[in-house]
Design a protein that fits this description.
- The chain is built from 16 helices and twelve strands.
- The chain has 371 residues and is of the alpha/beta class.
- Helix 5 crosses helix 16.
- The radius of gyration is 21 Å and the shape is globular.
- The relative contact order is 0.14.
- The protein binds iron/sulfur cluster.
- The site of iron/sulfur cluster has 13 residues, from helix 6.
């Protein structure tokens, strides 16, 4: 999907050849009919959104929006600029833009930097962390390699570049099982997500042994603090309160790979964010999907509700990623104002040593060969 300069930023249907006005922006926001956007949200933030969009266009910025961003931030990105961290990084690498603003947490922006080393990759909050990436590093990979000599290390893309650089191949939640099956040998080391590893182990039963942190060893691993919060008891309560009985043909309970194994077993469908979205789209286009609950970050459901208005989504908005929530309209506007003023971008720029970029790029490229 190669972009052409000057045609990527069309600023929506209202733009034509003139600049987008504040009234245009407000109208677009109201026209979204988003179930979780109130009059107050729109009136309070329209001016900032208008400024962001004007500067985005002026400086030909690619603004990548992760699926877990709140709707007003997510909506700053064109459709092609929305998605999961790897898909966004691959998209950005094909564009000509010099500036990439990644609306997500820094490990995601690192992947964009690895795939676009000559571009300026910026994030709204460099202190926004991630319970998976923050609690697992290159030294932890070395510990596992020593425990299982010769076994390939497959690292989940939700990790920092330095840990990737020590690993043999990357994976996403959409391709982990496929890649693991294709790797040589009887054993694969999977890091850093312990629940994901347990789910993969179940999926690969009889085909491949999955070694992971905490399984017959004391190596350090991590879990996603968002998906960890869903328990089997929660899912059973959700089924009852939202009337989503197991096996119902038009009501579905979805779970992400990062959830606990018993949560995945209870779900009607489990998969990556993109696989969940594809299943919803296929059902909507087919026999129809009446009601759904997605055991994942709550803003994902907010964005799904916008994309699939015919589906009644239930959500658990107490379950939010506090790291992702650090990305705000005000902070994004600050990046663009700094670009506009020609100010120092160090506060926002994601940088990596050249050798880390080279070493982390190899496992990503190996993954892409499998895809
Ligand atoms: S939801 Fe938050 S804590 Fe979980 S993997 Fe994503 S960034 Fe990390």
């Amino acid at each position: 999907m190669k972009s052409t300069k000057g045609t990527r930023h069309t600023e929506g249907a209202t733009n034509g050849t003139r600049d987008l006005t504040l009234a245009d922006v407000k109208q677009e926001l109201y026209n979204r009919h988003h179930p979780s956007l109130t009059f107050l949200d729109i009136e309070a933030h329209a001016k900032t959104i208008h400024r962001i969009r004007a500067l985005k266009q002026k400086h030909d910025v690619v603004m990548l929006g992760h699926n877990y961003m709140e709707p007003l931030v997510f909506g700053l990105s064109d459709k092609a600029e929305q998605g999961d961290s790897l898909g966004l990084s691959m998209y950005a690498a094909k564009t000509e833009a010099q500036y990439l603003i990644f609306n997500g947490v820094p490990f995601m922006a690192e992947t964009a930097k690895i795939l676009s080393p000559d571009k300026t990759v910026l994030v709204a909050d460099k202190t926004a962390g991630c319970s998976l990436a923050d609690n697992f590093g290159a030294e932890d990979v070395k510990v596992l390699k020593a425990l299982y000599p010769g076994a390939p290390v497959m690292i989940y893309v939700n990790s920092y570049a330095e840990a990737k650089a020590e690993s043999d191949i990357c994976c996403t939640s959409a391709n982990a099982a496929h890649i693991a099956k294709s790797l040589p040998g009887d054993t694969v080391i999977f890091v850093p997500d312990i629940f994901f590893a347990q789910n993969l182990e179940e999926e690969l039963k009889g085909e491949k042994t999955v070694a992971y942190p905490g399984k017959d060893n004391t190596a350090r691993g991590a879990v996603c603090e968002v998906h960890e919060r869903f328990t089997l008891a929660d899912l059973l309560a959700i089924r009852e309160s939202f009337e989503i009985p197991k096996g119902h043909s038009h009501r579905k309970l979805y779970a992400h790979w990062e959830c606990r194994p018993d949560v995945l077993k209870e779900a009607d469908f489990y998969g990556s964010t993109s696989q969940i979205m594809k299943d919803i789209a296929a059902r909507v286009a087919g026999d129809g999907l009446e009601r759904a609950f997605v055991a994942s970050e709550c803003e994902l459901t907010s964005n799904l509700a916008q994309e699939f208005p015919a589906v009644q989504f239930w959500t658990a908005c107490s379950i939010r990623c506090t790291h992702m929530a650090k990305v705000s309209l005000g902070k994004i506007a600050n990046i663009l104002e700094a670009i506009d003023e020609g100010a120092d971008l160090g506060e926002f720029e994601v940088t990596l040593d050249a050798d880390v970029i080279d070493n982390a790029r190899a496992p990503i490229e190996r993954m892409l060969e499998f895809s």
